[in-house]
Amino acid sequence: MEFKKVDRLPINVKEVIKRRISNRTYEERSLTEEDKKKLLEFNSTLTNPFGVEVKVQYISKEKGADDVQLGTYGTIKGAKDFLAITVKDQPYAMEAIGYQFENLVLYATDMGIGTVWLAGTFKRKDFINAIEIGEDDLFPCICPLGYPAQKQSFLEKITKASLGSKKRKDWDKLFFLEDFTKALTKADAGIYEDALEMLRLAPSATNSQPWAVVKERNKFHFFCNYKNTLNDDVKKIKHIDIGIALSHFHQTAMSKGLNGNLQVEDIGFSIPDNMHYVLSYIAD
C-alpha cells in the first residue's frame, strides 16, 4: 500500500495534546457561528495517510435534529452540537478515522472547544434522519462538542474515576527495542522521545491504550494489542485508537522537524498472539 503525505497541523501540537481532555459536561449552548464555520472549514482541509475518505457531518440539537436521541449517553451533559463520522468499509478505514478526526479534535482543543470520542455507545437508527448514511457505510463513532462547563457533573467525575482517564501505561508496557523482549527507554528513543510520549498520552476507548511500538533501528513498528476472541466491532474501535495514537506520534514528529515515511514492513521478530501489526514509520 502507498501511504499519502499529510500536512502538519498549524498549532502547538505538544502543548495541545497535554491540554486535551475528554469533556462530558458542556455549557448549555451551541457553538457560535464563527467557531462552527472555522472548525468545519478546517475539517474540509484534513486528509489522512491512508487515502481514505472520512466523512464528518455536523448535527445540531437546536437546529432541525430535535428528534435525534442525542441525550441518551448518560454521562454527556449540555452538548448541543455533535459530529458524526462515517466511512466506507475498506483497508485502514478505522485508522484513517482515528488519524484524521483526532487532528480535528486537537484543532478544536486549540480553539477552546471541548470534545469527547464516543465509539459504539449509540444506535445507528437514532441518527438516520439527521445525517446522510448509506447502507454500506460504517458509522463507528460520534463526537459531542461545545464549550466545556466550569464544573464537571457528578456522573462525569465518577466516569473518569472508573476509567482511570488521567492514568496512562508506563513506557515499558508500551514501547520496545528491537523486539518484544526488551523495553525501550527514553534514551533509546532519542529525538523521537517527545513523539512517543505524546502517543502515550493519546485517548482510547475505555482508556485501554491498545497500542505497542517496537523501535528497530530507524523503524517504528506499530501494533494493536487485543485478544483474537474480541468481536469485529470492538476490534474496529481498537484500530480507531491506533489511528489516534499515530496522529499524536506523527504530528509531534513533524512539529519537531522530523521526517519519515509510513510503510508496510515484513516483521522479522516474534510477535505475541495478541499483537496485530498495523504499519511502520521509517525515520529519514
Automatic annotation (TrEMBL):
The keyword Transcription does not apply. Residues 12-253 form the Putative nitroreductase TM1586 domain. SUPFAM superfamilies: FMN-dependent nitroreductase-like (SSF55469). Its cofactor is FMN. InterPro entries: Nitroreductase-like, TM1586_NiRdase. Keywords: Flavoprotein, FMN, Oxidoreductase. It holds the Pfam family TM1586_NiRdase. The keyword Oxidoreductase applies. One of its GO terms (molecular function) is oxidoreductase activity. Belongs to the nitroreductase family. This is Putative nitroreductase TM1586 domain-containing protein. It comes from Peptostreptococcus stomatis DSM 17678.
